[in-house]
Amino acid sequence: MGNLRLAQVPKEYHTALFTNLVEKRGVEGARQLIQENALLAAAFPWCFSNEGHNFWQAIENGENPTANPKQGISDQVQSLAAEAEARGFAVGVSTKFGVIRERNRDGEIYEHELCDDGSFFYRNIRVLSAKGKWCKPNKKPKKSKATDASAIHALLDEIFSIRKN
Q1: What averages of pLDDT result for each successive group of 10 residues across the chain (165 residues)?
Q2: Domain spans, the chain
Q3: CB within 8 A of 70, min separation 6: which ones?
Q4: Taking the model in full, what pTM does it have?
């Protein structure tokens, strides 16, 4: 997505835009984004909009979009990865769940993963919860080993690396 701001969205798409904003960001969040005249790309995750990424990309390109609410999973993963990167996530960045790594100890690449419950893993770290909440980048990892999915990933890595030796 480029530089289209909310105020620049053509009037015929305002209903879809505001419906998605309120649904995904809540009334207060939508109000704040509108007051800030936020970038369309920053307003909400494309794969969670009713219309999807291609719909909003066509609007930004000045084209007449055709709604396609069923994107392929790979499109959703790519959209979420792009949004995660725009939010500051990258290899080496710390989150409360740990440090984002590209590879595990055996050299295998961590792929981005969209789970059935809607949570999203950027490489080895869950950055988006099933409730649609993003964690914050550049946070110190928690000291405790919580039973969240990121901690489980880390523990399994340790177990498998010990067993191989």
Answers
A1: 77 81 81 85 62 70 62 70 90 91 87 86 92 86 59 70 58
A2: 6-60, 73-164
A3: 52
A4: 0.45
